[in-house]
Every structure is written in C-alpha cells, then in structure tokens.
Amino acid sequence: MPNIKLTDLIDRKTLQKIQDGFSRFTGIASLITDRDGIPITKGSGFTTFCSKMNRSSKLGENLCRLCDKKGTLKAIQEGKVSVYTCHAGLIECAMPITINDELAGCFIGGQVRPPEIDEALLRRRAIRLNLDPDEYIKEAYNTKEKNPREVARAAEFLGELAGVISTMALKNYTSLQNTKMMEKASKAQAVFISDMARKMEEAIKHWTSDISSVAKMEDFTQVKKRVSEIADQGSELYSIVADSMSFIDDSEGKAALYEKVYSPAVDFTITANGLKKSLPKNSPELIFNVEDSVPEFILGDVTRISQILFKLTQDAILQSDNSKVRVSFSAQKKGYATMLILTVENQKSRTADEEIKFISDYFSTGSKAFLVHKIITEMGLPLVYMLIHQLSGTFSISKDSSGTVTTVVSIPQLEDKGDTK
Predict the structure, then answer these.
(1) Cα 315 to Cα 14, 92, 279, 323, 344, distances in angstroms
(2) What is the pLDDT of residues 392-418, one digit of tens each?
(3) Cβ–Cβ under 8 Å, residues 252 and 187
(4) CB neighbours of residue 220 within 10 Å
(5) What DSSP string runs through 90-133?
(6) Which pTM does this prediction carry?
(7) Most CB contacts within 10 A, which of 73, 79, 221, 364?
(8) CA-CA distance, 411 to 338, in Å (whole number)?
(9) What is the distance of C-alpha 245 from the center of its chain?
C-alpha cells in the first residue's frame, strides 16, 4: 500500500468532522496525521501554548512531530492507545490508523496538563525555542488540567474512533482493489457511522455516569455544572451522527424496496419541514410545494424518495449563495405508471459549469471514474445515484445563464385510487 494515502480512502472533510466531534466531546485538542506524522487535518481545540508557541518555530514543530511519532510507535509496539508526556510537559495520547496492519496515519489527542507543572523544565524549553520564559510558563498554566481518569477515558474513546477509521479505510481500500469503489465506499461509510454512533452513545453513558458518581465527593455546584456541559456536548455530537442513520440500510444493500400507500403532500411536507428546522440561521430560504397534479395517494417506496428529497435539497442549500431554493413535486401519467417528478431549483448556485457536467455524466454512466471529482463525493451523490437506480428513476441537472441550477428526478409510481388501501 505504498502509493495509497489515508486521504485517498477517506476525504479530509470526513476526517475533520470526526476529529472536531472528538474534541467537542472530550474537551481536549486533537489532530490526525499521515504515516509520516504530517498533519492532514486542521488542529481541533488547539491551545495557544501549543499552536502559537511550541509550534511557532521549525524547531518546535519538529519536536512536536517527534513526540507524535514516538507516541505512535509506542502504541504500535504495545498494541493499544499510548499515553505519554510530550517535550513541553503536556499529556498526550495517540493511536495508529492502520490498513492491513500497515501504518496509514495517527489519531492524536492531548494538550492537557497534569496538576503540577515543572516550571524549571518549561523555562529551559522556552530558552531553547527562543521564547519569553515567563510568557511560556503563563500559557502552560492556561492549558486545561485533566486528572488521570479523565485522560484514560478520553484515550479509550480516541482508540475506538481510530479503530473505526481504520475499518472504514480498509473497506475503501478493498473496494479500490476490487474496482467496485462506489458500492463498497457506501458500505464502509455505513459501518463507520453505525459504529461511531454506538461507541459515542456508550461513551456518553459511561462519562456522565462517572462524573455523576463524584458529585458526593467534590464541590456539588461545580460537578453539576460540569456534568451538564459534558452531557450537552455528548448529546449534540450524538445527534449529528444519528441524523445519518436513516441512510444506513440502503447503503449496506440490506433493505429491499418497501412499497406502501402514502400521501405525498403529507409525507414529503414532513420531510421538508424537518430539514427546515435543522438549518442554521441565515440559511437560504427553502420554498416547498406539492402541486395539484400529484395524486392524493400513491403506492411506492416513500422512505427512499424522502431520502432523495432530503439529500438533494440539503445539497442545494449548501451550494446556494444565500438566495432561494425552490423544491416541488409534480406528476405526469405515463402508461400505467404515474411519474413522480421532484424538481430542486437553486438560485445563485455556486456549483461551477464544469461540476454540473461531472454530475450529469456521473448519473448518466454511473462510472466510478467520476468519484475522483470532489463535488461528487462531498455532496453524497453516490448514495443518491444508488437510490434513484433502485427506484428505476432518472436524473438530470442543468444551469442557466442567471446561475440557477435545476435538478430533476423522475420516479415511476402507481396512483392508488382506494382499492389497495
């Protein structure tokens, strides 16, 4: 695997999201590096002591990387997460990311200090780095203090996430080798999301339980405040992951089509309203409508169609330049079938003309060759392609001179006139 990088198998955006979530949940800094110790993500939760002092010079940067490498080597040799003290006296933990027992990268956490600081050591280190010793020591005290139990729990969680990343990378690597990148990548992503959600849920329960148990032994007000903060962090992080769980059965290829009689006006409006509620402030305006041409009741797979609606609308909002996104359903009779037509109109889209062509060609051919284009993977289009293909639907995308991008998905359904309800 000498020519394959971790970022060839898992995109940086996904790695960054995992890393950011870990730091928000545990309250410690983190970083993911490649096999050579070079960062492939932006540091999450980095302290001023580390980012603007220790890593401010080439010497300091090299010392930090050397510590990271030693921590990774220790973890490989011991077969478990390594917890160690870095050159600046802070506590760190590291776990390698491996593919077929070969090193692909490392998940590193830390930048926390023990209760006591060796000021003499820090003063010597500051002089070596050509920094003001007093300022250096001051910033060291500004780092977070963690007790051994907290560090051990964070290290355990870091190890679990590194294992999940390794599993995901291995599945994608195998997919590449088997020339089935699209299908296998979806499976790897599903395993990752599922494992991560379960492990986070377990970690949250353990963490909040441990902190609650010390309420009788410490200052109750402080403990209560801390439990609340950590519980909020864990709940927020878990909900982000749980939002993706509805896609897992389809991406695993386990679920068969599940057709039932449904009401497009009711079911799709619920999906659209749910998406509206999840949007951050200052998002583009989402205008949703089910036209009169759509039958009151339809026989079909409402779950898969709702997933397509959610994903394409979400992508349009993310690509919109703070304008409007119009989403509508219409219908046309075609032989015995009713063609249900989803139209997503994105005014002032940032999607480039070249990217529109990549998307159009990808849906026309389904070729894995298009997966090298960032726009395809970042928008989650392999999953949308799979869903539309399963439903025997069609896809088209176009962009006019005003910058409006229009996406149209047509899916054959059966109108229900009351004899199947």
Answers:
(1) 16, 38, 12, 14, 10
(2) 899 999 999 888 999 999 999 988 876
(3) yes
(4) 11
(5) -EEEEEEEEETTEEEEEEEEEEEE-SS--HHHHHHHHHHTT--H
(6) 0.45
(7) 73
(8) 8
(9) 12
